[in-house]
Known about the structure:
Elements: H1 2-15, H2 19-34, H3 44-53, H4 55-86, H5 92-121, H6 127-138, H7 142-162, H8 167-180, H9 185-211
Amino acid sequence: MANVTSNRGTRATVWAPLTGVLFVVLTVASFLIGGEPPDTDDSVREVVEFYSDNDSRNMIASVVASLGAVSLVFFAASLRRALRRGEDGAGLLSVVAFGGGVVAATGIATDAAIRFALADVADDIDPVAVQALHAFWSDFFFPMVVGMGLLLLATSLAALRTRVIPVWLAWVGIAIFVVFFTPAGFVAFLLSALWVLIVSVLLYRQERAVAI
């Protein structure tokens, strides 16, 4: 029984890094399902009609995004485990990386909750309130910026010393962190998704090598 439990634990550990891939897939899927939202300067009627006419797809997109947030926490946990193997002392950077993942996941889940509420009550509350909530949702990105930025920065700084990921990828992560806090922040989101995909696959390969 102990051997069976141990084998199951090993398999879970090996596959855990691929939750980063799952996070990216679910996040992209949520955007595709939800569709292009109206601009913040669109009329009240256009905003209300978007959520009224697309209520089901936005609710589904919110649930998919929330599942992506769950996947991100698991990825951050597996990333912390990989970083901790090469760290000394208290393992500060691995803790910061995991904390960044939790902050980003919380932001994503909150973002999804706001979108779900908009789709659910667009026909039931004052249209001006719908527009105001939509404007708030449109600019609700700082938790994701801070969280993903911390995850990338802490991982990259640790990697410069431990080589848990290639040095070039660590420098790319640091560069993306900087771009997050510039007007090109949306580009940083796209690049961070690609970064997570690459790191996810690399960690999976490392865990397979350790398990063998």
